[in-house]
Fold each of these.
Amino acid sequence: MKTSVLVRALHGGDVVAMRAMLAMFGRAFEDPDQYTAHQPGDDYLARLLASDTFIAVAAFAGDEVIGGIAGYVLPKFEQARSELYLYDLAVDEAHRRAGVATAMIERLKVMAAERGAYVIFVQADLGDDPAIALYSKLGQREDVLHFDITPADRPPGR
């Protein structure tokens, strides 16, 4: 029996669903502390979900969040347009390879266009073959280097 999946954007009133999405990210990435140990308060999440610069897309099987995308709209300075950075994407293990990630990205593409984005970009780590295969199917690959620069007055690694 195939489970029916609903994909939709989360908005300011979806704090409970956002917390469920964070827990799902923790399971999917095998790092629950990163996504659940220090979650912000309800007011912060509601403001984030209502903002024009953050996008959350969730996939539901019934009431359960089985997939999610977190992305950021980045207004550009050289032209009146934006880019959308797909920051995190995950699908619960039991629901992988069933088109959930592709359905979420299709919803994200519509939202990106609605927000004036001319491109969606995403980073995949070397060795993450499933992510690389998904993104290769949906877009053009660019090989780039990524650097983390520590802000002033902050110890490295925090």
Amino acid sequence: MPKTRSQKETIVAELADKLSRIKSAVFTSISGYTMDDANALRSKGRAQGVEAVVAKKTLLVKALEKSNLSVIADELQGSILTTMGYNDEVSAVKLIAGLIKDREGIKIIGGILEGRYVNADAIKQLATLPSKEELYAKVVGSINAPISGFVNALAGNLRNLVYVLNAVKDSKPNS
């Protein structure tokens, strides 16, 4: 049954609200996308602060315009899955990259990053970046490395002093 005008306006308003809060979004052509894929994507997405929505292209384009985001409507071909990341810029991209890794019918069309449209190549490059948690771990490791080295150097000197003292003790006759 076709949707009424008021239902369509409600969908556009909800999409526009969601799009106004995103850090990034990925548009994916989803021929061959099954309900099992949808359920798996939604459950993984919830844990990462990512939402997946399938909406008619005309409604999606109107919601994008309402959110002051520009997308070339001609680039959105086929059935479109919109994956929106609210927590960070990489989470939505990584989620989709994991989905399309072993599927041929699903491909990235483009996305929104920092309020502007980017092509599929830029999205794929973004998928190779480490997540915030991985970057934090690298920074902490980099900060910790010199301190650990210093502690090990001091411990090495003390260890060597103990070895020398033990050698001196062992070389002296017991009295």
Amino acid sequence: MSEIIPAILEKDFGEIKNKLTFLRERVKCVHLDISDGIFVPNQTWPFATGGFEDADFKRIMNEEDGLPFWTEFDFELDLMVADSIENFNTYLKLGPKRMIFHLGNKDSLGKLESFLDSLDMYIRDTVEIGLAFIPSDDLLTVSTLSHKVDFLHCMGSDKVGFQGEKFSLKALENIKFLKNSLPGIVISVDIGVNMENVETILDAGVDRLTIGSAIWKSPDPIGALENFQSLV
């Protein structure tokens, strides 16, 4: 049974709240894209509105508030940021159920592996850790690190940090290869999932479908979400 997870990629905290309001009682898990404009060229909240000095972000860090409707949703943070490891504890204060770290370049692999090895048991028991990779990444490296994370997050395009990109056939091949070579691995897919390709992606064996523009850019977002949910 696969899961549909709506993705929110917004520059403004108010828009995040608006979309979460729409999703209340419709889904349990929501994917929040955090982009810093360094690791990827796009910026989302909080970096588009002051970074760690953003007023809403600071209230959450000071435990004066939480993410909107934080008692109703499980949040999945996609950390498309250059400081994901250095500021791990800061992002952890946002209260996620899952945190996704990107494979990045070869120079950072050792640092990522050391970080994954250093996570204490309390964090591993309370927060799921995912490894994101793009279609052009080396699958041997992905496979090697797979036993250090709870799930793999397959990006549907090499262009990350944006919504509305086309899903790559290479990504589909990667999913099939990893499902075959790593029995039992949980794989989520992000970028480019739409009604035209969703059944093919499901047939490849994915466990979670992270969907953004196919929901939010639809003239009927509620109907679009329900159509996706009817397939899983």
